[in-house]
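Entry type: protein chain
Record version: 2
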Amino acid sequence: MSKEKNVATQQRIGEILTAREIDRLGEGFHADVVDHDPAPDAPAGLAGIQAFWTEFFEAFPDADLGVETLVADDENVTAVFTISGTHTGTFQGAEPTGKSFTVRGIQVGRFDEDGLLVERWGATDEAGLKQQLGLA
């Protein structure tokens, strides 16, 4: 495993998300990725990751994701990020509010020898997001 390869994969995932090319997430995630913090009712593996981001970008089409800090070793990449957007579509059962949010989050990804993300842990300030959108 290589720190440089893992960082490159993490950056590619960011580029894919920025381009909204959800069908390309398999270039960075293993098909059987284990998500320790999945979205509610998400299917397992890559399909769950894709389902989350599809719904997210439909609900927040102007979403912007910026990495603040990236720390890596030969097996893991940790990213601290800020995400923002305007709620114009249904998200996890919540009807659009038209309000905007900005919150921080963190993701830790473990990579395999091929440089694919095979296991992830993550947390985003969901309470802050709900409060800013008027859902809490």
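Comment: Residues 3-132 form a domain with the Nuclear Transport Factor 2; Chain: A, fold (CATH 3.10.450.50).
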